[in-house]
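Before relying on records like the one below, remember that each one covers exactly one chain. Contacts with other chains, cofactors or solvent are not represented anywhere in the record.
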Amino acid sequence: MLQSLIEARKWLIAAAVLVVAIVGISYYAARLRVKPTLHNVPAELGIDIQQTSEGFSLSKSEGGRTLYTIRASKAVQFKSGGHADLNNVHVVIYGHQHDRYDQIYGDHFSYDPQSGDITGTGEVHIDIQGYSEGPTKPDQAPPAELKNPVHLLTQNLTFNQKTGIAQTSEVVNFRSAQATGSAKGAYYDSSKNELQLKSDVHIVTTGDKAAVITGTSGVIQKEPRQTVLIDGRIEQPTRTLTADKITMLFEPDNTVQHVVAEGNVHIESRGPTITDVYGPHGDVNMGPNNSVQQAILTGGSRFVTRGNNLANGSADTFIVDFDDQNQPTKFHMVNNARLHQDPNPGKQGVGPASGQPMDVIADALDFQLANGSDLQTADTLGKAQIVILPNPTKPKSTDKNDQDMGNATTVATAGKFHATFGDGNQMQSLHGEPNSRIVSTSPGQPEKISTADKLDVAFDSDGGVKTLVQTGHFEYHEPPSQPNTGGRSAFAEKATYTPADQWLILNGSPRVIDNGTTTTAVLVRMNRQSGDAYADGDVKTTYSDLKPQPNGALLATSDPIHVTAEHMASRQQPSVAHYTGNVRLWQGENVVRAPKIDFDQDSRTMTAFGDEHHHVLSLFVQQSEDGKLTPVQVIADHLTYTDAERKARYTGNVVAKSQDSTITARQIDVYLKEAGDQSAAPAKPAKQTSIIPGTEGPSKIDHMVATGNVVVIQPNRRAVGDELVYTADDAKYHLIGKSPSIFDATRGTVWGDSLTFFSHDDRVLVDSKQASSTVTRARVTK
């Protein structure tokens, strides 16, 4: 961005040469204050002519060495005013150190002794030539060859020997091997060694990277050696530097020592991406041979890019370091550094930009450069944070649960950030460590916070943030969205977050705790905005902090409810989870198995689904009058259970198996006793009667209602009907429907409008509209 300053050294050399030229003119013109004596004057040629001289010459020496010589082909002195004309004048200046060979020449000069003005009328030529070998050569020996001379041309140059001021209102032109230039009007004060270029300063440099230097006016001084341009402008095909004032300071050998730009400093660098740099003050420190060492912008600087890469930044100070090839190698943003990068516009300017805008904020930013302007890496110093802003072009979702998606602001912090850049100075990756931290906020939502040892950010091709990856002791926390809830936390070794959709993916022993519910799996995905969550591979969920529900049954106690599965999904309703793949749900000894189970923690309801290979399976117990507990297994295609109703509805190929009977039907509703109801049972015997030692056992069946193709199979007995009501306490079966019947292998078949029979004996009660009830007695089971 500050590459434009490198080329300034060539332009400054040209300005320095111009200083030497004008200083030389005035220096030696000052020595013309002593009126030359004309020798060999011929006779008077007219009434105004006082004296004439052919082959006029004048020289000045010091310490045995000549300082300058003035030669003219003819000199004419007039009586009127005493002024003199010099024709074909040639002045050679050797200097006090005898290291110059500057020449001034023109066709006609005039001298006015009254005013002290010496005026070159018409064209005045000046050739500036250094002559380092002069002190070792004989006096007035010319150089063997001219090396890089500077030629100046002007008109009507006036020097006043009394005041030491030289000036012209005409255009001053110059040329050298490095540059050509001009200015309109010049004013030189020899007592101050100061040259003023009045207006229209214009310099054009030569070489591969030619530049144009302009200013509304300029000042060139000998002590200190400097050139000042007002409203200065240095322009190349790809770069432009402008400032209210540009000051160039020189070494004694006229190489540039330092450059100062003041007031509205602006550097524009043009290419696929246009970069504008602004600041109130700029300094360029120069090295040997006019090489640039360092450029500094202070007082609050900023830059803006346009084109393929949209970014801007600011800091109290910008510093650019250069290599020995005058190429920028490092760029420093010091104190209150801020870098903002927007995603690239839509393809060919069509459509909105994708991705999210991003800010990098730090005490300082250090950039490594290649090829003078290509960003390679960047490092933060001191406190640092990355701010990922909402995409202003992304439309809001119509889903009320997702209406704030894409409107989140994400702030990432770490001890230090390291960034890499690709084509077009676009950031490709960002690494932060130690103590990485990400905070995400959305309108009307609480903060979501995650921490880890390290953070890695990847970017899309459009410049937007693609992913944030945190590794090492990852933790995530968000406060509860509702009062009296526990919020959500997550733990893992690795977490991948995508700001565009706010999905967080956990790997490495992930564990999620959500409002008292803990889930572990091989991989967990959760949305930090909507609350949706998915788990895959060896899923286990434990629902803790449960309140007992005295009126419930299967899931009524305060004991944890556990679920294992291959997959889990929770969407929109945080309390509802969908489990698939060899699902097993249990509380205590109440167990349900199925290929798929949907569980609602708040209402303690579940829906279980079978498939073509596996059925829904659950286990209960029934208690007889003598207090004996026997298990009952129910198998079906589908189960719906509501704990508040204590009813489990099984549908599709339903089979209920106990020790002494099997019931099949299209649908069976199992009604359970309250979890705390012990009224129907006698006092517990000393010996443990639970099916699973150490527990209270599965839920107890109160009664069952089976409908649709009901079949009851007992040893030596088979009953069929449309509807069956079974009560567990008395082991009674009441069968109704169209022509219910019971087949007994010993006694044959019995029909009736309704049939009642029992598990513990052979009684059958027959109810018929055409006949009175009949009781059949037979053997009694032992």
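The chain has a mean pLDDT of 79.
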